[in-house]
Amino acid sequence: MSTPLNSIDDGINTFDQPRHDWTRPEAQALYDLPFADLIFRAQGIHRRNFDPNHVETASLLSIKTGGCPEDCGYCSQSAHYKTDVKATRLMDRSAVVETARRAKDAGASRFCMAAAWRNPKDKDLDRVCEMVSAVKDLGMETCATLGMLTPAQAARLHDAGLVMQDENVRVTAALVQHPPVAPAFAYRFDAADRSIVISGDTAPTDEVVKACDGCDVLLHEVFNPHGDELKEEHWKEYFATFHSSPAELGEIARRARPKLLVVYHQVLEKLPEADLVKQIRKEYSGDWVSARDLGVY
Ligand code: SF4
């Protein structure tokens, strides 16, 4: 007999995509699970979708401290209470970027900027947007806690990594790994009916996974490490540093979940495409095609 818990198990065992069709009995059955069981199930899903041992390292900076006009009743940054927190003005962009650079050198991949505002003025947000763009240019993820934002202010912050936008398409950039070319970018194109991500030349990177995140089409480069010429030590090292192997691409595609993977910039080195397919298939079971000149996907 099928119970709500059976169907939760079915869902957990098969789904790689978020579900939006939970029934009330299923939600209730989840809610009623013992905490340790919940953690166990969450771990299973996490392991199927992410590197189980990856821990994101983040650093937080107070870019404007104290003197907040709000009274949240617990916060030492509120101007309503006498605390030892010294109120400061909004930091300069250069000081923020320098702090982010040091955090990156120390191993942080994400940088959070916190400001003690009830709600920022537009001119203050201009400066925060500049900070967000500059920190992103270092190759770091950014986040911010700035008090209450208007929808327009939130959209401006979101667009701080924006390349261009018109009535048809929105283009955003993500940093990829192709040293010594730095910065090197992948691009995401969002139109009304389609989202496309182009990796550019890159070693495997989480940035492509985040940029795609279930996009319609992911175009990604690849090289074939089995190719004759790539058996030479020099080329082996070169390609492994700057490009993505089929196994690495399979892993990226599995995590990025494109509806269609289009494999381009293929360095096959005299091996048939079928060899590439075999290697990608070990990691990725989704739809994919080899790019063709003037192909439409
Ligand atoms: S709005 Fe933020 S900074 Fe201001 S008092 Fe509340 S928690 Fe503190």
Structure summary:
By secondary structure, the protein is of the alpha/beta class.
Order of helices and strands: HHHEHEHEHEEEEHEHHEHE
In spatial order, strands of the major sheet run 4-5-6-7-8-9-10
| Strand portion | 15-25%
Radius of gyration: 23 Å
Sheet having the most strands: 7 strands, mixed
What would the average pLDDT be, to the nearest integer? Answer: 86
CATH class term of the largest domain: Alpha Beta
- Quickly give the CATH architecture of the largest domain: 4-Layer Sandwich
CATH superfamily of the largest domain: Ribonuclease Z/Hydroxyacylglutathione hydrolase-like
How many alpha or pi helices?
10
Q: What is the CATH fold-level name of the largest domain?
A: Metallo-beta-lactamase, Chain A
Helix content: 25-40%
Structural class: alpha/beta
Number of domains: 2
What is the end-to-end distance? 43 Å
Number of strands: 10
**Shape assignment:** globular
Oligomeric category: single chain
Low-confidence stretches: none
